[in-house]
Amino acid sequence: MTDLNNLKVQKILQSKALAHLATIGSNGEPQSSPMWFLWDGEYIKFTHTTQRKKYQNIKRDPRVSISITDIDDSQIYAEFRGVVERIEDDPNGVFFNTLAEHYGAAVCYPGDPRVVLYVKIQHIVGQNLASSRYTHVLIAKPDVDLYASFKDSKGLQGLQLRPIQEVKTSEALTFVFKSDKALSAETVEDILHTPGIWHISANLDGTLPQIM
After folding, report:
1. CA dist 201 to 58, 61, 135, 152, Å?
2. In the list 27, 102, 118, 178, which could disulfide-bond 43, CB 3.0-4.6 Å?
């Protein structure tokens, strides 16, 4: 489980991305909708009308799943699983207007019956949420299958690798990637022994010495 204090998780929670709120229908089917949200440090809060099926779903079964993608990088997302712990009436649509202002939307409360949903997070999963603090630049023959090579490298197993850039010419392939942990000297040596790989500069922005 990813920690709530994870910097990428906090960035997502404090962003103005849309949250996809999924509830459980009366027949057990999932029902998901993109929605505005606001994180108050304890709850993910939504505005919702009481006239829609999603509200009935929540009243019947408060378990929900919320998926939010990093607004700056579509390769990073977090899924927050939890329960709607509290529902408050919002007869004047005050929270609707708060969200509209937060998202910079030129709309105001439409007048329908509204509530505020308070979702308590119980579990967090996602993709590329680990801190990718170490950058590596690899140069190889243009026809090398790097992904197969990485799969066979024991030193890379268990690391979270994130491709950043791949540039291929008729003469060489340059591949930039990040990892959540530094590459050891043994791992770098193992990579360099892979046929077709000519050079790697490892740990370029981490706290350990660079390996060239």
Report:
1. 52, 52, 9, 19
2. 118
